[in-house]
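New to this. Please check both lines:
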Amino acid sequence: MANASQFDPELAISHKFPDTTYSYTERDAALYALGVGVCLSDAVDTDELKYVYNENGQEFIKVLPTFATLLIRISGASSFNLPGLEYDPRLLLHGQQYIELYKPFPSSCQIHNKVSLAGLHDKGKAAILEIETKSYEKDSGDLLCMNRTTVFLRGAGGFSKSSKPFSYTNYPSSQTSAVKIPESIPFSVFEDRTQPSQAYSLPEAEVSWEENLGGHGFLVVRLFRSVLAVWVWYVSVLEALLYRLSGDYNPLHSDPIIAKVAGLVLYPPILHGLCTLGFAVRAIIKCICRGDQDLIKSIAGRFLLHVYPGETLVTEMWLEGLRVIYRTKVKERKRTVLSGFVDLRGLTSSL
């Protein structure tokens, strides 16, 4: 538990985090792309080769929008230190991630980060800490993206100075990752955007099956301006080891002994939550954005359960205006591991 005599939440709100810097190269961007499954089953995927190779004469490779999560270098508990707040780093859980994207990432760049406290909440036996990082291109001063990271610190609560639990938030509620996920089974649309009170059965919808050169298939159901798509990924057993090379060296994702101490039932190392987020957003880029990663405006994800490398990820997507609501499940265990939304700048003409 946090020591109430040492930790004053009111003072924590005014705490000034030091600015940080981070540099990356085209190699880092390509390694990250491989770590979230790019070209995993098809080395010449026509939609994704651009993230790892200068195809068709392009001067620089393209960078995935979820690469934004690397710019803040969340690798270890030191990023979440507040004066007087005591917690066991082994009990830290990554709960949510919110990202705003302001311009496409260059293939290599020097980054200047400005860090601030976005939220702090006393949950009794635990604390919720939210850190906001704005990443600027160092040379031009242009704002590239904003990350808001929410972590759950088990054993760090109990610091409230009154009977009312302490709670502080400095951002709008519309930026939270909590969304209402449709309870209908995939491939059916029960509520249309323009006629919310009317239900439609599958025969009244336009249904098509699409697949890429590697044989990955997905069913697309179109009803007026609503789209439901399902994409299935197989996660390589080496995925966690590959993803960690992008900078997240938490042994929970590589050391089976640490995984056992952390209380995992099967205790093999688990996949990074941000890696799972990368898989989900790739599915949205493929199915909804038709391969145009620059259509992504913002990303919100809530991490609900761990993923074991080697499991199959099924991402379901519902299009509501310019917002994609998604849910990612593990096929083998039939459990939801990630949910959230992605806001788009626009839609492709094919939709």
The chain has two domains: 9-174, 202-344. The helical segments are 9-13, 26-35, 239-243, 256-261, 273-287.
